Amino acid sequence: MDKxxxxxxxxGIFPFVFFQGVAPDTLCMVCKNFKKGQCLQGKGNCTMxxxxxxxxxxFFLFSEKGRWNFNHTxxxxxxxxxxxxxxxxxxxxxxxxxKGRDFCNKYIGKGKE
Length: 113
Ligand SMILES: *[C@@H]1O[C@H](CO)[C@@H](O)[C@H](O)[C@H]1NC(C)=O
Ligand SMILES: *[C@@H]1O[C@H](CO)[C@@H](O)[C@H](O)[C@H]1NC(C)=O
Prior knowledge:
Shape: elongated
Number of domains: 1
Distance between the termini: 62 Å
Radius of gyration: 20 Å
Domain UPAR/Ly6: 27-106
Structural class: alpha+beta
Signal peptide: 1-19
Order of helices and strands: HEEEEEEE
Organism: Bos indicus x Bos taurus
Bound molecules: 2-acetamido-2-deoxy-beta-D-glucopyranose
Keywords: Signal
Largest sheet: 7 strands, antiparallel
Protein name: UPAR/Ly6 domain-containing protein
């Protein structure tokens, strides 16, 4: 009876341990103004439980010389994160998403440079 109980206990615990190992939460950096690898404003963190939801967004402004000039980078968590370029008038926003490594969103995009 004791062995049966132990077996049930192990069966009950292992899937949980396994699941935790496969899909760990990812801690992401939150920042309103990220430049040269440093957060200048609004620093914090957020957690993504699943999916590539650590987000990095580079903001560019269209210059009079006809070029996209990098302005700043924002970091946060977003459930529906997709890598894309988004244009609103003379503003361009490039998004990047990552997961699986804590603060991975501070290693991508223009803000890291
Ligand atoms: C995440 O942010 C909270 C406050 O917002 C802070 O207390 C905590 O230490 C941070 N965790 C890490 C790992 O930076
Ligand atoms: C450009 O970056 C500055 C911070 O360096 C920010 O205050 C400003 O809102 C940004 N401009 C745009 C249009 O995002």
